[in-house]
Amino acid sequence: MKVIIAEKPSVAMSIAKVLGAKRRKDGYIEGNNYIVSWCVGHLIRMSNPESYDGRYKKWSIADLPIFPDNYKYEISKYTKKQYGILKKLLTDEKVTQVINACDAAREGELIFRLVYNQAGCKKPIKRLWISSMEDKAIKEGFNHLKDGREYENLYKSALARGQADWLVGMNLSRYYSCLHNNNYSVGRVQTPTLAMVVDRDESIRSFVKEKYFTVQINAQDINLETSRINEEEKAKKLLSFIPELVEIKEIEKKRKVTRPDKLFDLTTLQRECNKYFGYSAKQTLDYAQSLYEKKLITYPRTDSRFLTDDMVDNVKIYVDSFGNDFDDKNFKSIFYSKKVEDHHAIIPTSGSLDFDTRSLQGSEEKIFELIKAKLLAARAGNLITENTKVICDVEGYEFTSRGTVVIDEGFTKYLTSYTRKKEDKVLPRLNKGDRLKVEGKKTNEKYTNPPKAYTEDTLLKDMKLAGKDAKQDVNIETKGLGTPATRAGIIENLIQKELINREGRKLISTDKGEQLVSLVADFLKNPNPTVDWEVKLYEISEGKADLKDFIGDVEKRIREVISQE
User: Are 343 and 485 in contact (CB under 8 A)?
Assistant: First the structure.
């Protein structure tokens, strides 16, 4: 008998159906020599400090730092029943093998291993590692089960991440709360993210707008304007020098070719859903997860924007069903196995062709259609535009006018529902040396604009790009604050802790958030140390770094903060 443990009941049911397990029991499904059960998220969690020593129940700087020799884990009281079922199954003498079917990612590995270890199970582990919940993908996955020992380093990376978060959160939240008599929440990833929002809000508040001027000429159906002129007197003087006729000094024509964007990873999907639909990062993740469980899209928690080379034929069959406007070069460019670590980019499944997506709730349908549109756009031709710049010269100042004409809309035809279509600005037929009659002239008074407040779109972008100055010898895909799977939760946690507020689409820091950032040590505000840690976690998963060394570095940082103040 083989026990399969999935992360969610819905996933377990899909697996059971494929394997022919049909008998429903309390907390599992049985049949065909399989028992398919499930976790409900994290059944096992890290224990709070008071479980190590009762005195930690009261927060005191004198008791810090808290560095456990051996970390304790406990069963969540809300999922105690399901854990009991899993433990009974894992320790059943009839069970000879355990299959980890939790999400194929770091956290999925941790969820399974904590249950397996807590139950005291020693039975051999096999790993189901798939990127789609389609029946075909599940069958193929079971035909190519991996040895669980291959994922030992991934588990160690997950443990290291959890322990680091615990150490920073438990020690420094207590430290700053006690030191300043307030209830502060400090986190390895959340605090540098908060600092980014606080810094942006401060730059908006401290922004001093600057007045500047431009001079504009209206001549024969064309408007020409200077760039920024700082002094009003200079602008007025230039205005007085404008002759009745201005000569075209230069006409620059450039053809611009824009290739389709890469496919979606989770972060870019979250960003575009925020931009187009106003969805929060968490909402997008929840909708995408539901689509995945409905077998309509591939695994959403991915950080790759490419597909593997062996997917060409199947993807071509899918996109062929929507037309034949292939650009072979563009299509081939989305397949790049070396850019895929654990999971490829998010795309619709082949099974979605037989599904009426109109039956989905509105939000899920919108996200599905956006994912489909991104894939179809990727196989289409380039956007080709012709950009024209007309230049006149008056008293050493350039007056310019620009026009853009779309020659070939290319891939953009698939994205017109989401992007604002710009009207072509067509300039009249002109030649170098033409003299234009000035029909009107004026000065324009303008002001510089402050930075824009963060939205989830722009914050997710900056979280992903954070730490550009951190270690340079590791692939950039591993850098950034958090991971695609955790960034939504980080933003929501900051809101829940009342450190930032969501105002419409804007994310604004609170007084409490600003106070916290002003108090904490520099390394907690600077993204680079956190990004270096994230790189180290990646190296642990690759077997290139040691868990104990990583935790030792985290402890050293915490000790420095507590001892220096």
Answer: no
What does the block give as tokens for 38? 């499930």
Q: What's the predicted TM-score (pTM) here?
A: 0.91
Question: From CA 254, how far away is CA 259, in angstroms rounded?
Answer: 16
Tell me whether strands 500-503 and 454-455 are parallel, antiparallel or unpaired. unpaired
Q: How far from the centroid of its chain's Cα atoms is residue 428's Cα?
A: 44
d(CA 529, CA 535) in angstroms, rounded, equals: 10
Q: Give residue-wise pLDDT tens across range 419-461.
A: 877 778 889 889 999 999 999 999 999 999 999 999 999 999 9
Beta carbons of 253 and 404 less than 8 angstroms apart: no
Amino acid, single-letter form, for residue 101: A
State the Cα–Cα distance between residues 200 and 204, nearest whole angstrom: 6
| DSSP run (H or E) holding 559 | helix 547-564
- Peptide bond preceding 300 in cis form (omega within 30 of 0): no
Specify whether 116 is catalytic. no
| Cα angle 519-521-527, degrees, rounded to a multiple of 5 | 115
Contact 127, 99 (CB under 8 A): yes
CATH number of 211-259+383-447: 2.70.20.10
318: CB partners within 8 A, 6+ apart: 347, 348, 350, 353, 375
pLDDT band at 414 (very low <50, low <70, confident <90, very high): very high
pLDDT, one tens digit per residue, over 85-144 is 999 999 999 999 999 999 999 999 999 999 999 999 999 999 999 999 999 999 999 999
**Per-chain mean pLDDT for the chain:** 93
Find out whether 379 and 327 touch, Cβ atoms under 8 Å: yes
Cα(176)–Cα(515) distance, integer angstroms: 11
Reported as a single tens digit per residue, the pLDDT across 355-386 is 998 899 899 999 999 999 999 999 999 999 99
H or E stretch covering 44 = strand 44-46
User: Domain residue spans in the chain?
Assistant: 2-43+79-144, 156-206+452-564, 211-259+383-447, 266-378
- pLDDT tens for each residue of 473-523: 545 455 689 989 899 999 999 999 999 999 999 999 999 999 999 999 999
266-378: CATH topology: Topoisomerase I; domain 4 (1.10.290)
d(CA 246, CA 243): 6
Sign of dihedral through CA atoms 341, 347, 351, 356?
Answer: positive
Whole-number Å distance between alpha carbons of 544 and 344? 23
Q: What is the CATH number of domain 156-206+452-564?
A: 1.10.460.10
For the record, the structure tokens of 339 come out as 């850019």
Contact 157, 165 (CB under 8 A): no
DSSP secondary-structure letter at 452?
P
Please pick, among 299, 318, 414, 454, the residue that the annotation labels catalytic: 299
CB 2 within 8 A of CB 12: no
CATH class as words, domain 2-43+79-144:
alpha beta
